[in-house]
UniProtKB/TrEMBL annotation:
Native source organism of the sequence: Halosaccharopolyspora lacisalsi
Top-rank taxon: Bacteria
Swiss-Prot/TrEMBL keywords: Membrane, Transmembrane, Transmembrane helix
Protein name per UniProt: Uncharacterized protein
Residues passing through the membrane, by range: 25-43, 49-66, 71-91
Disordered, as annotated region: 1-21
Keyword Transmembrane assigned: yes
Upper taxonomic lineage: Bacteria, Bacillati, Actinomycetota, Actinomycetes, Pseudonocardiales
Length: 121
């Protein structure tokens, strides 16, 4: 006669031990990187960080969604794409500001031309 304890060990002997989902790393990485990307996109002069984090987050989110089809992976992927857009818009805005700044510096260093209510002194 087999006891209950012995019966449980025989059933579990051939099966692999239960372990957490293997693909949660991709999902977690996509959400964390997407959050970092969006927040850094709102800080001036960190557009490259936003763009890079967003791109990696979108890839990790896509890998995680393919393997787990979880809503969190989809959210990480979408937020990653938002971070890429924020980074690209921020980089363009920084370029416009840089050009305007350089234009004003050049205009300030230009030789004085009297007229239009200004005097050279």
């Amino acid at each position: 006669m087999i006891t209950q304890e012995h019966e449980d060990t025989q059933e579990g002997a051939g099966s692999a031990p239960a372990r957490p989902e293997d693909n949660d790393g991709y999902v977690l990485a996509s959400v964390v990187l997407a959050f970092i990307g969006v927040v850094s996109g709102l800080v001036p002069f960190t557009e490259q960080v936003s763009f890079a984090c967003g791109a990696v987050a979108a890839l990790c989110g896509a890998f995680g969604y393919i393997r787990t089809t979880s809503a969190v992976a989809l959210a990480g992927m979408v937020l990653g794409l938002v971070a890429v857009v924020v980074g690209a818009v921020g980089a363009d805005s920084a370029d416009v500001v840089d050009r305007e700044f350089n234009h004003r510096i050049e205009r300030t260093n230009a030789p004085c031309r009297p007229g239009a209510g200004y005097s050279c002194e």
